[in-house]
Each structure stands twice: as C-alpha cells, then as structure tokens.
C-alpha cells in the first residue's frame, strides 16, 4: 500500500508540474499556484468537513485569461472547479483531486452603478457588501445579504443562489439579477438575460 501511495504522489507531482509549465505560458507567475504548501488554503470552502488539495490553483486577472484556461482544460480533459471567496457552506468549491481550482477573486471591479435604471454591472469577485455599499451611495438598495456578506463574492452568490435575512421579502440572488455574462466550460462567452437597452 505504501508503494502505491508513493506512486500516486509522484504521479500528482508530475501532473502538477506539467500543468504549471503550461499555464505559466499563458498567465503571470503570480496567477499560478502549484507548490503544495500554497495549495492547502484552497482545500475546502466554508464546509470544512470535506477537504481535497487541488492539483493546481489559478487566479486570472481578466476574462481573456479565464477563456484561455477553460479552452486549455477542455481540450485536455482537465476538470475545473470555480471558486469565489470560499465562504460557501455547501461544498460547491470543493476542489477536484486531479483538476484545476479556478479562483475568480481577482475579477473584483464594480464596472458601473446605473442610478437611473437601478442596476449595477460587476465582476464575479466583487464582495456582496461592496455592492450594497455602492448601491447605497446612489440611493439604491441591493437586497440579498448572506450571513457571510462581508466576505462572500457575487459570483459565488449567483452560483449558489444565496439569500439572507431579507430573502423572504426581496427574493434570492436569482430574483435580483437582470443579466449574467459567463464563460462556458469550452471557453465561449455567452450572455443570459435582459438586453443592454435602457428601461428609463
């Protein structure tokens, strides 16, 4: 059994190095995490009863890098798990043993707060509380407020359809979305929901 464990460890090390070399050609060095001790913080989300150290963690800076990652993984049949802030309690960000953990934490810009149309455009890594604060500064209100609001990200809220104490009156995250632009597992960008046309 020890010999099999050693073989598995060597296999994972080779896989990890191969992936790191590939991704370092398309991403900045600080966007590729592959050293064992640096991977441990990503082994679980808020549901810490289940843990799995990912093969590699990637932290892209923009949509183009996300697309490049997903296209490479799709072409090479590498599993991908997306991660927001890692505050979820459902195990939704539990890494795959032989896969990529794709962290969207660096896509954290509020692109627009449109007071007239009462909507905002944000990237997935923006914290829920930051959206609430930005809306409040414009005399608006963003209702979904999970208990982890201070740390959780909107991308994770969308993925998990997060709620909070206001959800009975104002609905869950899905009830407060007009449009979602996403990248498919094949690396294609698509938009779901309402158009860009003004409602004022």
Q: Supply the CATH class of the largest domain.
A: Alpha Beta
Enumerate how many helices there are, as a single number.
6
| Number of E-state strands | 8
H and E string: HEHEHEEEEHHHEE
Gross geometry: elongated
Q: How many structural domains can be distinguished in the coordinates?
A: 2
Query: What percent of residues adopt helix (DSSP H or I)?
Result: 25-40%
- The CATH topology assignment of the largest domain is Uridine Diphospho-n-acetylenolpyruvylglucosamine Reductase, domain 2
- CATH superfamily of the largest domain, please? Uridine Diphospho-n-acetylenolpyruvylglucosamine Reductase, domain 2
**Chain oligomer state:** single chain
| Order of the strands making up the biggest sheet | 1-2-4-3
Based on secondary structure, the structural category is alpha/beta
Give the name of the CATH architecture of the largest domain.
2-Layer Sandwich
The average pLDDT value, as a whole number, equals 92
Give the terminus-to-terminus CA distance: 68 Å
Note poorly predicted spans. none
Report Rg: 19 Å
Largest sheet: 4 strands, mixed
Share in β-strands: 15-25%
